[in-house]
Amino acid sequence: xxxxxxxxxxxxxxxxxxxxxxxxxxxxxxxxxxxxxxxxxxxxxxxxxxxxxxxxxxxxxxxxxxxxxxxxxxxxxxxxxxxxxxxxxxxxxxxxxxxxxxxxxxxxxxxxxxxxxxxxxxxxxxxxxxxxxxxxxxxxxxxxxxxxxxxxxxxxxxxxxxx
Length: 163
Description:
This protein is α+β, with helices and mostly antiparallel strands and 163 residues long. The protein has helices spanning 31-50, 144-162, and strands at residues 4-6, 12-17, 53-64, 73-83, 87-97, 104-117, 128-130. It is built from two helices and seven strands. The relative contact order is 0.21. It has one domain (4-133): Thiol Ester Dehydrase, Chain A (Roll).
């Protein structure tokens, strides 16, 4: 029987403080710094899912929606949303919170592809992933990564019709 784990197994959360060295002349965090945090948490999430060393195969999308400033707390959350034979798609969302006013803002969303590798650096199989659903769920309130997965699936389907 093939192994499969719930998306929740890979859920990973990190919090970072935005400090002056991490910012530009406008006191907002460098996009590259946020990308570094995203890559790190995606790797942690994929390692939790696969119980394996992983490498970043691609950063499939990054949407910078708003900025974070010096003194804000960045909260990053990641999940393995789907798997291939050796690869895992990881969804990462980043929120900034002004610690004085408690205002929380979605700043960044991203999808990455991570690949599990063995001791020789060769791709190795990963467990499948699945989404646990509560018995009585309001399907109008889907999780953000579910909406994104459906959007991506529609795009791939449309693309396959064109080619």
